[in-house]
Write a structure and sequence with these properties.
Layout: E1 3-7, H1 18-37, H2 42-54, E2 74-81, E3 86-94, H3 99-109, E4 114-116, H4 120-126, H5 140-144, E5 154-159, E6 165-171, E7 192-194, E8 198-204, H6 206-212, H7 214-223, H8 228-243, E9 247-253, E10 257-261, E11 268-272, E12 275-279
Parallel strand pairs: 3-4
Antiparallel strand pairs: 1-5, 1-11, 2-3, 2-6, 5-6, 7-8, 8-9, 9-10, 11-12
Helix pairs in contact: 1-2, 2-3, 6-8, 7-8
């Protein structure tokens, strides 16, 4: 059984944007499913799905990323291969529109797990990735710092024909952040996790997600035999109790997938063995 699940960030979203967001996550899920359906790997599928969302200005990743308090863009991303538990991640990289591609290159090189800041461009040049032109990632919505894009991330989780899992997460961070701030998205076990049993991508209050290692918390519950929906619910409830923060999660294991959030909305699209589903999320 193959499956891909995609999210477009948890938070408060204006009703007039719902259709555009659902179209975006559907397109991302379709890109990932195209790889899975021809026998491709879950790792390739999640990267392809997230790249679609990074290029869509409706989402807080790549083009459309939230701005720092200095009016610049710095992006974070990570990708994790569940079969090997290898990770590639980048954090606070200025003018990086394809953060998930650079994260994948870090994983493939296998030298480090996380590269951060402007020095990551030294490695990017080695693998043929160029910075976006100055201002190219900044949208009018980001300039206005609308409430519905202040928190959010994009991500994908997948299971391929061989039963291997992968997760990928990319974000522009939070509006008004300090330069150099690294959120949960590129941190293994916080915003992103994949192992032999499941894959997880989180979104929302990055500092809260970091404080409870949200993705790893869910994975440990699944590994102990907790059904996936219950594992996600319990971990989100723990995050809320400990931090008073908010988050959303997509997760997939060997038998099912889950998409739940504490906030009012989280655009989600899923394709499992050819069956399509999408929504603006399920609040708990």
């Amino acid at each position: 059984m193959t499956a891909i699940v995609v999210h477009g960030g948890a938070g408060l979203v204006a009703a007039e944007r719902h259709a555009r967001l659902r179209d975006g996550v559907r397109a991302a899920a379709a890109a990932g499913d195209a790889i899975l359906s021809r026998g491709g790997s879950s790792l390739d599928a999640v990267v392809a799905a997230v790249r679609v969302l990074e290029d869509d200005p409706e989402f807080n990743a790549g083009c459309g990323s939230a701005l720092t308090r200095d009016g610049t863009v710095e992006t974070d991303a990570s990708v994790m291969d569940g079969a090997t538990q290898r990770v590639g991640a980048v954090g606070a990289v200025p003018d990086l529109g394809c953060a998930i591609a650079l994260a994948r290159a870090v994983l493939d090189r296998g030298e480090h797990v996380l590269l951060a800041g402007s020095s990551a461009w030294d490695f990017a040049r080695e693998v043929g990735i160029a910075p976006a032109p100055a201002g190219a990632l900044i949208t009018e919505r980001a300039r206005m710092r609308l409430a519905d894009v202040q928190k959010g991330t994009v991500g994908a989780v997948a299971r391929d024909r061989d039963g291997r899992f992968a997760a990928a997460t990319s974000t522009g961070g939070i509006a008004g952040k300090r330069r150099g701030r690294v959120g949960d998205s590129p941190i293994p076990g916080a915003g992103t996790w994949a192992d032999a049993h499941c894959a997880i991508s989180a979104t929302g209050d990055g500092e809260a997600i970091l404080r409870v290692a949200l993705a790893h918390s869910i994975a440990m519950r699944i590994a102990s035999g907790t059904p996936i929906d219950r594992a996600v619910r319990e971990s989100l409830s723990e995050l809320q109790r400990v931090t008073n923060g908010s988050a959303g999660v997509i997760a997939v294991d060997r038998s099912a997938f889950s998409a739940l959030q504490l906030s009012s909305t989280m655009p989600v699209a899923a394709i499992s063995d050819g069956v399509h589903a999408d929504s603006m999320g399920t609040q708990i």
